[in-house]
Amino acid sequence: MGDDRLLLIEDDDDFREALARALERQGFAVTAVPGLAGLSSVVGQLLPQFAVIDLALADGDGMDALDIVLDQSPLTVALVLTGHGSIPAAVAAMRAGAADFRTKPIGGAELAAALRAAAPAAAAPLDQVEREHILKVLDGVGGNISEAARRLGLHRRTLQRKLHRMG
Known about the structure:
The chain folds into 2 domains: 4-123, 3-Layer(aba) Sandwich (Rossmann fold); 128-166, Arc Repressor Mutant, subunit A (Orthogonal Bundle). 53% of the residues lie in helices and 19% in strands. It has helices at residues 13-25, 39-46, 62-72, 87-95, 108-123, 128-140, 145-152, 156-166, and strands at residues 4-9, 28-33, 50-54, 56-57, 60-61, 77-82, 100-103. It has a 5-stranded parallel beta sheet with strand order 2-1-3-6-7, sandwiched between helices. Helix 7 crosses helix 8.
C-alpha cells in the first residue's frame, strides 16, 4: 500500500510533520503542503488518491483547498480535518465532496482507517436507483447541472463527479 498517494494540507508545521510521519508508517506516500499557495500545481502533478485537508489554513479556507483538489483530481478521497468541528461545517464539507470529516486530535492509524474505509464507497459504482433518480431530475431540468444539483441537495461539483463516474 506504499503507493497510495496522499496529499496532506495542514498549516501547523509540527502537526503536519508528525501526521505525515504517522501516515507514512500506515503505508501512504505523503506529500505535505502548508496551505493554498502553490496547491494547484502540486495537485496537478500528484493526482493524489487521498487528501487530508485542514479546514482552517493560515492562508485561506480549507473548503477552497477541497475545491482545488477535487476540481483537478475528482476521484481523490478527501477527508476534512478540523480542530473546531461543527455539524454545519461537516455538512458543508460533505456536500462539497469530502468523503469524511474528522476532528483533531487524531492519530495516524485512526486517520488511515477512515481514509481506507471511505475509499471503496468513493470508488464504488452508483446503485441503479440513485442513477435513475439523478437522470430523472437532470432530464426534468433540461440538463441544467446547477438546477439539478440544487434539487438533489448536492453541490454542483459533487453532481458532476457522480455523473462522470456514471459514464
